[in-house]
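agent> Task received from the user: take the single chain below, predict its 3D structure, and emit structure tokens. No templates, no multimer pairing.
agent> Plan: (1) validate residues, (2) run structure prediction, (3) serialize to tokens, (4) report one or two observations.
agent> Step 1 OK, no nonstandard residues flagged.
tool_call: predict_structure(input=
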Amino acid sequence: MKYLFLLLSSFSLAQTYKIINEEKTDVSFRGLAIESATNFVVSGSKNTIGKTTDGGKTFKWINPTVVQNRDFRDIEILGKDTYLAMGIDSPAYLLLTKDGGKTWTKVYENNQKGVFLDALYVDKKSKKIYALGDPIEVGKPFLVTSTLTDPTKWEVSKSVMNQPLRLKNPKEAFFASSGSNIYADENQVLIVSGGVASNVYRYTAKGGQLYSLEKSSSTTAGVNGMAYDATNNIGYMVGGDYTKPTDSKYNLYKFKIVNNQINFIDSWKYPEGYKSGVAILSKDKVIVCGYSGVDYSIDGGHNWKNITKDSYNTCIASPDKKSVILVGNKGKIGKVTF
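)
tool_result: status=success, residues=338
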């Protein structure tokens, strides 16, 4: 087990970083859901799902037998011992367990050519579940929805909050790097795209909104993930070009919702390199991760300090905001504690 103690003198804050598991070195982890500081689940390639109830000291590894050789790019905790796992490409699956992973049921299956699911999102206030995918019909995001009341029933959505789903550029799509390119609450749904173009789509009961983001000309660039803290009205979008992990260009956008519009906020400095995941800890504290490593800010994203050069795909803060779990390639699962 690898430990690294960091004292960021200019930030007047200390934190501990450690790799807590590397058992599955042949697995790439991109799915992560946290129930508490001690209970969380991870998901990844080779039909692999893992859960821990002791903060990552030990993991129970699960391979659902109802499907074979799936890449579970995202996973959500719907309730006690109830998980929803997303298998991404044709046939794409959503699997449900209600007994902590002992048995699984296929609650959604799609054999369409070109289907590719990118992210799951659960809004527990509205009890809605969203699964976002790349366009199958030209110019429209593919979105299937369900509810926490009955997650066995799914339907294809043509609209969100009574606003039609559509893409500005028919060739733009979504990155499945971190399962975080969709956000939803009772007031709005946000979707961020990348590839040929990078756009933010905001859907509300009062109408739809489009915001175009700067990116390099590469089709491997754009926004990969986002997080929004409705309590503090602060959000971050992260990305860059995953084929250029050390390039920091267009890798961060900070925003607020003001007068029912997205307002972007300039930063002074930017984190290092390509980023795919972001976790908000408070009004001013935020962590981002990617192939280039893990960076941290305590002043609202204006200044950044590198925590580690270790590569990670996804990061999520614990409910008490005292730690962040990270998952990545080669079975790497890490933890930053504050």
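agent> Step 4: summary for the user.
The chain has one domain: 21-232+310-337.
agent> Done.
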